C-alpha cells in the first residue's frame, strides 16, 4: 500500500500564475465558449454558410468572454473593497470595545 502521499494538484500555469487561482477566469471562459458555440450553430442554421458561422461563433466567444470577465472582475473588486472596509470597521470596534470612545461613537450613531 502506498503512503498517504497526496497527488499533485492538476493546475495550468500561464506566465507563472496558476489560472485556477484567478477569480472569474473559469466562468468567463465557460460562458464564452458556450455562447460562441450556441451563436455559431444558430448562425449556421440560419445562413448555411460554415465559414461565416465560424467567424460569428469565434467573435461571439471572444466578445462574450471579455464582457463577462470585466463584469465579473468589477463585481469582485467591489465586494473585495467592501470586505476590507468591514474588516477595518470590525478591527476598530474590537479595539474600542469597552472604552469611552466606544460610548461616544454609539451616541453619535444613534
From TrEMBL:
Signal peptide: none annotated. One of its GO terms (biological process) is mitochondrial respiratory chain complex IV assembly. The chain crosses the membrane at residues 29-46, 52-71. It is found in: Mitochondrion inner membrane. It comes from the Eukaryota. Its main location: mitochondrion. One of its GO terms (cellular component) is mitochondrial inner membrane. Pfam families: Cox20. Keywords: Membrane, Mitochondrion, Mitochondrion inner membrane, Transmembrane, Transmembrane helix. InterPro entries: Cox20. Belongs to the COX20 family. This is Cytochrome c oxidase assembly protein COX20, mitochondrial. It comes from Drosophila lebanonensis (Fruit fly). The gene is LOC115621074.
